[in-house]
Amino acid sequence: MEKLLALFCLVFSATLLHAADLLTSDKPYTDNGQIQIEKKKDSDEETRIERGKINGISYVIYYADGQAAFGNASDPADNWTVSCKKYGSINDVHCPIRKKGLSVYLYASGDNGVSIGPNLYPKSSTSITIDGEKPLSTKQGEKGVFDKETGLTIIEKLNASSRVSIRYAQWPNKKPFDEVIDMQGYDEAVAYARWAMTHLKEGKHF
Fold first, then answer.
1. pLDDT score at 205
2. What are the residues facing 5 on neighbouring strands?
3. How many CB atoms sit inside 10 A of residue 12's CB?
4. Across-strand partners of 112?
5. How high is the pLDDT of residue 88?
6. Are 95 and 193 in contact (CB under 8 A)?
7. Torsion 114-115-116-118 (CA) sign
8. Among 66, 74, 79, 165, which residue's Cβ finds the most Cβ atoms within 10 Å?
9. pTM of this prediction?
10. What is the dihedral angle through the alpha carbons of 76, 103, 188, 64, rounded to the nearest 10 degrees?
11. Cα 179 from chain centroid?
């Protein structure tokens, strides 16, 4: 009887835990993914966290809010991060993919975009160079956001790129600087973002 009660409590607790997660999948993202239940930082609440590898790229997925990171760098800042948001229907889902000063925004509606930042010097311009081609730039006052057509062009080029650098001026320094972006893990981050769009329930995301 005690064993049955313990088993019931375990199943009931897991059900409540899954219900609180914004990422709704009950199965690991990959065949080798390992899901563990861990306590949230600065809280006694528990959440599911998955770790694994895909195409040789390490990843971690946080089921509580759908955030994820892809890359093999020891410094988390050098890996790609994915943070999805859903406000209603599938058409209201978008997933920013970021690394250093480069942000790629994927929308379920297809209204995708690219920006460079953060904390840009007021009225400064930004640019991105992909595989040594002619730089693509934003105009002064556009706050690092590329127009829709240029953004879609950049996203298409990033899918097959191996060398990317961005240039921007960060407050309070007016002089722009170059930042090299290692593309390792980018394709895997994009694939996860598209998967997550169909596995998120409505809620507050970060």
1. 42
2. none
3. 10
4. none
5. 62
6. yes
7. negative
8. 66
9. 0.85
10. 70
11. 19
3-state SS string for 43-109? CCCEEEEEEEEECCEEEEEECCCCCEEECCCCCHHHCEEECCEECCCHHHEEEEEEECCEEEEEECC
Contact 157, 130 (CB under 8 A): yes
Q: Which residues of 150-179 are buried (b: 16+ CB within 10 A; e: fewer)?
A: bbbebbeebeebeebebbbbbeeeeebeeb
Over residues 18-35, the pLDDT tens digits come to 557 888 888 999 999 999
Rg, C-alpha atoms of the chain: 20
What does the block give as tokens for 34? 């390992």
Cis-peptide into 96, omega within 30 deg? no
Residue 89 in tokens: 């229907």
Question: What DSSP line would sit under 30-42, residue for residue?
Answer: STT-EEEEEEPTT
Q: In angstroms, how far is CA 181 from the centroid of its own chain?
A: 15
Q: Looking at this protein, which amino acid is placed at residue 21?
A: D
